Amino acid sequence: MFAIVGCSRSGNPLSPGGPPQAGSTIRYSAVGASDANGVGSSVPCFIEDCATGTGYVQTAVRTLRFQGFSVVAANRGLPGGVLSRRIQTLGRQYGRDELFFNFIEDELPFLPKDSTVVTIFAGGNDLNVVRAAIAGGAANGNVNGYVDQQVLQFTEDFQTLVAGIQARAGSARIVILNLPNLAGLPYLSGGSATDRQAAQRFSVGVTLSAFNPFAARGLAVIDLMCDARLYQPGNISSDGFHPNDAGYAILAGQVVSAVTSASYPHPQNSCSQMAIVP
Known about the structure:
Layout: E1 25-31, H1 56-66, E2 70-75, H2 85-93, H3 103-106, E3 117-121, H4 124-135, H5 143-168, E4 173-177, H6 193-211, E5 220-222, H7 245-260
Parallel strand pairs: 1-2, 1-3, 3-4, 4-5
C-alpha cells in the first residue's frame, strides 16, 4: 500500500498530512528544466530513473532509497523548459529559438496521477528570456516596470501550474524550490549593471510573489534564494549557471528533508542575498 503524503484529513492537498511512513513507497515526480536532468553535474541523466546520476533529483532518489523507502521516479524535466507558452513565445520573439518546451503544456499533462511527491524548480530559463527581451528593446526604457510586469505574469502562470498539479495528482505533497538571486552567479558576473539589476529584480520578485507564499498555504518551499552555499564558486558548474555535483547535493539534501520532515521551515522573505547588486 502506498503512503499518502499530500492530503490532510480534510482532503485539501495544500495541507500536507505529514512525512511518508518508514519503508513506504514514494512516487516521486520532478517538474523542471535542465536542472532536473542534472546538467552541470558530472553525470547528467535524461531518463526517468538514473542510478548513477548526480543531479538533485537522482541524488534525492538514491538518498530516499538508502533511508528505506521504495521510490518510483518519474522525471519530467525537459532541458531548456520555461514555465508557460507565454514566456516561450516571448523568447522566440527575441532569438531564443531553442525553447522547445514549457512546463504547463509539455510536463504537467504527463505527470503521473498517482504521484505522492512532486518537486518544482522553475524560473532560471524564464529570467534569461526576460533578459533577452530587455536587451532587444522590449522594456522601452522602463526596465523596472517591464521586469515587474514579467514577475506578475510569471506568478499567475505558476499558480496555474500548481493548481494543475493539484488537480491531476491530488494526493501529492508538493515541494517548491525557490530561485537563487541569479545576478549573484558567475554567468552574470561580467554583465552590465542594468542586466544584473534586472536579473536580481526578477529573481527576488518571483521568489517573493510566486514561490514563497505557498509556504503559508502548507507547501514546503526550499529557500535557495537565502542559502549562501549556492553562491559559492565551489558549488557551481563551469557554465556559471547550473550547480555542480556539490551544489546539486545541497539541493537534494533539502528535497529529502522537505519530503521526510514532519515540518519544514518557511523560506526567509528578507536576506542579504536579495541585494547582491546595489
